[in-house]
Amino acid sequence: MSTDHQQTSSRKKKLQVGDRAPAFTMPTQSGSTISLGDFLGKSAVVLYFYPKDNTKGCTDEACSFRDSYEVFKKAGAEVIGVSSDSEESHQKFASKYQLPFILISDKKGTLRKHYGVPAILGILPGRVTYVIDKKGTIRHIFNDMFNAQKHITEALQVIQTFNEE
Prior knowledge:
Blueprint: E1 25-27, E2 33-35, E3 44-49, H1 56-74, E4 77-83, H2 87-96, E5 102-105, H3 110-115, E6 119-120, E7 124-125, E8 128-132, E9 138-143, H4 148-162
Parallel strand pairs: 3-4, 4-5
Antiparallel strand pairs: 1-2, 3-8, 6-7, 8-9
Helix pairs in contact: 1-4
């Protein structure tokens, strides 16, 4: 993963609303790479971190994002899922559940660390969603391990407020 120069050191403070989102370039389920910069100036980004492909809560969350994907697109946002699963695992997961959005493979957990996504009980990767505006500013952070559906409704509410500004 590559990051902005200032992002290469360990993150000392927790990311907050109003902070600049850490830049990244990461591999996707298609074998290509994407960068946060690919979206800046074009669309907002809903970057959601989840524990693992093909688990109940993560599948429910991914399918809920899938079912609302067109609403996100119409509101000017791209949805990107992130877990430590391999590109191959993501490809199978996306195909099995017809996920229309990008899945990032963060095998070493580097992106998760840059965003400060906490682990549950110190071992299970957390479930956190970041809503990033077109300028790269974090506009909303939602952390809830057990209510996957609320990640979608929270993100949509925030994205829809962009259009009212």
